[in-house]
Amino acid sequence: MKALIVDDERHVREAIRMLVDWNTYGIGTILEAQDAKTAIDLIEQERPQIIFTDMMMPGIMGSELLAWIQQHAPRTKTIVISGHDDFDFVRKTVMYGGVDYILKPIDPEQLNEAVSKAVASRKQDDEGSEQEQRKSIEINQLKPVYWNKMLTHLLEDPSYYSSIDETLQTEFGMPGGSLPCRIAVLATDTINANIRSKFARSEDLLYFSLLNICNEFVRTHNQGVAFRHDHGDIVVILWKQTERAAALLDTMNNGIQQAFGSRLEFGVGSERLVPAGFKQSYHEAILVLRQRNMRAARPRISCYDPSENPRQPTVHLSEYEDRLLLAIRSGREKVIKDAVQLWINQVEAMSYINMEQLELWRHELGVIKARWLKELFGDLSISLTLPSESAFFIVPLDPDGCLSIKQWGVELEEGLLRLSQLWTEHKRQDEHIIFDIVKYVDSHYADDLTLQNIAERFYLSREYISRKFKQQFQENLSDYIERIRMDKAKLLLMNPQYRIVQIAELVGYKDEKYFSKVFKKQEGVSPNEYRKKLK
């Protein structure tokens, strides 16, 4: 914090320097001026928070300096130190926001009390200013979110318009009354890959930049507003010169090209009347984008035409599910490539593929993938690092924004190959872990072996171990444990030194009677009868 002492008498300035406990108040810089003109220059350069000033000085009077400070540095706190007990001076001190009026000779206690009050008042102002700044920043950050929500609601429910029409007029300059409107939607699904790579770490920044460009064109003359729909689309609402919507969007696209090096696609709904027209025109714009033929070069601005509704026979990915799964199970790259190529050949034969078709295939593959994972990996409880959805279904575009089916086939092959490799590794580990369990049982048969204990030791589910053990050895794990224990018991029964109760404990049974019961069930005779037979 800085303080400025203004007085034409040097000894007064020195007295103030000596009497104030600067460190206590956090004041590290003390400046001096012998007249008001010098003080004004210092105030403009140094911006002190506290100013001590005399009222009677050569040239500009102290009261005039107070008036200047109030106008040019209103947050600065002033303390008047004067040799004149003049009511008019006191009145002007209060008028211009002075903290205190102290008479010479200076009372140290009174001076420090005034400084304390001035510093506290300035800190309170600073905190209030910081809070206001933070509040302003928060409001500015929340404002776009608020408008996105509000305008999204407007498109979905036209009756909402009556409650915000005045706000739209005030905020965006939208004319009142029943007027034509038109909705355009920017196609984010065909944004150039180079643009996406530049914003790979922050997709929100990409959308923020695009919105700024769009609003720069439509809000300059209050022609409309651009916002981000809750579904993620960038939507442009137009309410002026709607008949020239295509031309305006084309100009906007030029701005996007200058900023990003590539033009984007817009779907435009037909001209409709506010407010019902908002929803109608928006859904028309969405329909235009969904019906674009991704196999052909397209205009960057596509307007809704009710006569255009192309319907083409579709090919279902599910028809190739079994062949693709067999290829994955084979673990062979060529078999997988051949299976994918059969599917790609069918797609290549289609001259018309729109976004609806692509979304259908994406959905089909999602369902198929879920079935594959269940069939290949079962209900294995440990985590599996599986290929992401994009590894199975990436729809690459060429520089013209058309679907690159060849590259799509390559991406699909890579995704299925990774899944096949993971399944092969998983299968190999399956076999190893079951044999590890067998080894563990063979060496720990005398312990308290339960399926739960084994599952916890090997970090597997009980159901998984039971199923895999049965598949591998055609025998339940519990039966295998009993058989191993009985085989060991028969060997021990050959030694007459061991009593039956000892043998039971040595093979894992604490209860001799239960051991005898299990032995008889397995061998058809009791342990004693078996021993007599051996003799």
From TrEMBL:
PROSITE patterns: HTH_ARAC_FAMILY_1, HTH_ARAC_FAMILY_2, RESPONSE_REGULATORY. It comes from the Bacteria. Signal peptide: none annotated. Coiled coil: none annotated. Residues 122-135 have a biased composition (Basic and acidic residues). The modification 4-aspartylphosphate is found at residue 54. This is Response regulator. It comes from Paenibacillus solisilvae.
